[in-house]
Amino acid sequence: MQKICFILNIAPLYRREIFLRLDDAYDCKFAAGEKTVNASDIKLMDESEFKNFKRIKNVVFLSAPFYWQKGVLGELFNGCGKYVFVGEPFCVSTWLFAIMLKFMPRKKLYFWTHGWYGREGFFKKILKKIFFGLSDGIFVYGDYARSLMVKEGFDEKKLFPIHNSLAYSKQMEIRRELAPSGVFSAHFKNSNKNIIFIGRLGANKKLDMIIRALAQLKKSGIFMNATLVGDGGERENLQRLAGELGVSENVWFYGACYDERENANLIYNADLCVSPGNVGLTAIHCLAFGCPVITHDNFPMQMPEFEAVEDGKTGAFFKHGSLESLVETVRKWSENSLGREEIRRNCFEVIDTKWNPNYQMEIFSAVFGK
């Protein structure tokens, strides 16, 4: 069994299933910090679940966003033949590790990374080309990043689109139990179609556009509801805006919910998810439970998960930053000729085909062997 070392900035809880699958399939060592240098609030895995885990520390190097991982260089001599790093060019210790590894030709270095966004400026392009060029292979989140990197001159044989995933096995167990319910009609006391957003209510999500879209649609005689599942700094502002625009009765501030069955019931019974800002893993979460996704069309500014949205099949795109375009896109989708069950099947198919740990393990196996 091959010995592989995964060196991460953190071990996020949402990746628990793929990490444990890797830990079972290979002789792995995991090393990760307790938090990122920007002190993000991402929930972490319980380190005791790993067979071989080392705690490292992420510290700012001179000034943010540059940082160093304390204790990483010692892993050069831990007996592993392959190393997988998160692949962040701002991590100075990764640069030094990668350069030192060049003097150990029997060892291989891989990055598991966003890769290319398409918004890189001149300096960042040079930085990324040198940095990624130090690796023996790159696991990128999607085909979009891969195609951009090929255009930039990277060897396509060393680029492996691996997508992203959540707690797929648990979600499939819950999915089998789901059925249409009156969760929204019971709350709103109407039969309107329902928009859902699930995630942190932050300014970067541009959730005011959902409130404004509801008001615009209402003026044109199209009545819809919106349920915001989550909490965050923008909640009070959004509540105030809903009141000002006269749609308070059509917006349900559900609050944060950590019960996946409860979330699944809401997502499954919603008609569509609207994510006006970057969609990220919200798309995977919603598609996994059969809810189509609407998000913006400025792909260089998106997160990789936008690729799971297939226009007209599992969702749609509106013109970035345009309320008018969002309103029209929601209106068109609300009149979609596809039946709700067909839409659910489309959403399930996208997740079951590529955006799951089974697919990711196939890619790892193709690169690392079995």
Query: Mean pLDDT, as a whole number?
Result: 95
Order of helices and strands: EHEEEEEHEHEHEHHEHEHEHEHEEHHH
Q: What's the Cα radius of gyration?
A: 22 Å
How would you characterize the largest beta sheet? 7 strands, parallel
Shape field: elongated
Describe the strand arrangement of the main beta sheet, using strand numbers: 3-2-1-6-7-8-9
Q: Which percent band covers the strand fraction?
A: 15-25%
CATH architecture of the largest domain: 3-Layer(aba) Sandwich
Please identify the top-level CATH class of the largest domain.
Answer: Alpha Beta
Number of helices: 13
CA distance, first residue to last residue: 8 Å
Number of self-contained structural domains = 2
Query: Percentage of helical residues?
Result: 25-40%
Number of strands: 15
Show the helix and strand layout:
Elements: E1 3-7, H1 16-25, E2 27-32, E3 53-55, E4 57-60, E5 67-70, E6 82-85, H2 92-101, E7 108-113, H3 122-132, E8 137-140, H4 143-151, E9 159-161, H5 168-175, H6 183-188, E10 193-198, H7 208-219, E11 224-229, H8 235-244, E12 251-255, H9 260-269, E13 272-275, H10 281-288, E14 293-296, E15 315-318, H11 323-334, H12 340-353, H13 357-368
Parallel strand pairs: 1-2, 1-6, 2-3, 6-7, 7-8, 8-9, 10-11, 10-13, 11-12, 13-14, 14-15
Antiparallel strand pairs: 4-5
